[in-house]
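Suppose you are handed only these lines of text.
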Amino acid sequence: GKGGYPFYMEKEIMEQPQVIAETILPRIKDGKPDFSEEGIPDQILKDCKRICVIACGTAMHAGLVGKSLIQAMIGIHVDVVMASEFMYNDPVVNKDTLVIAISQSGETIDTLEALKFARKCGSPSISVVNVKGASIARASEYVIYTNAGPEIAVASTKAYTTQLAVLYLITARMAMARGLWEEERLLSFMNELQRVPQVMAKVLDTKEEIHRLAGVILNAQDVFMIGRGLDYSILLEGSLKLKEVSYIHSEAYASGELKHGTIALITEDTPVVAVVTQDKLKSKEISNIREVQSRGARVVLLIKENETLDEGEQWSCVYRLPKMDDPFMVMPASIVLQLIAYFVSLDKGLDVDKPRNLAKVVTVE
Ligand code: BG6
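From them, the structure of the protein bound to 6-O-phosphono-beta-D-glucopyranose can be written out as follows.
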């Protein structure tokens, strides 16, 4: 059942601390990432010259976070390819390309076909799948299961964050396999990963505060979501979530790109959700927020607790995120974005779990 919640989506959002723990803990031995159960040899993590992530929808958005992590920490190039487009751009993959296929259902035909093609080209492959024994799991050389449990709501939430959790584990194991990090750095990264469930729980405790933030969006026609880097990656997912369950038009825009594109569309009637979680991006992001504020936009700002903000007056809608090391801030921030989408849908009286025209599993190309 729905565990006492009106919709599965809320239940599944609330389950995240638990399922993240269930996804990471079995893969940590002596404080270090461990894929011996999965039988993944370090060699394939060590030898690859680049990575190609293949996925659709939410799973592809998880891949974008993985790309940032791996490029920053391992220093190899990562492509994230929409599976449905993979074949149409003459994909260049070979034995030096590690393919990571991400899929909740493990049955998405676009992802499956792209994975099979890459394997024919000689690429080693790992899939990140939620449903045990699914086609994509069977079609890949190695599989790491997300232990999210059954996800019933069509809009994905806990599958996404468990996919992220696996990508942190892969990043850390890759650093280990390549001898890139001192022991201390590895252990502190893994500690921070293990802190994710408790930090998520803290955010979930503030559900009613997030419900009030959702009120800013409830009657909007259009919403923009802006951020840079990792903040942008999670906003792509936050924006998809809002569109999927509330039918409000929403666009995630890299904040630096806004003035090269559609800033003219931002008016007093366009709420803007801004996420600022990365120290190195903060000042640029804040100045982009000023640009939309000067066009009258009401801004919902997600920022780390203890960040100072001047001009208190202008910041009427600020949500303070519990602090983690910057690469992990996507975890608490994602929960807030999921809940915003959920509450908008709920307050509109929509069928949150079954958005019109969407299917949980898509097995046609
Ligand atoms: C879509 C679903 O059709 O497929 C999305 O509606 C999902 O929610 C996407 O993200 C990919 O699905 P999967 O199962 O491959 O992760």
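What can we learn from it? The mean pLDDT is 95. The first strand starts at residue 28 and ends at 29.
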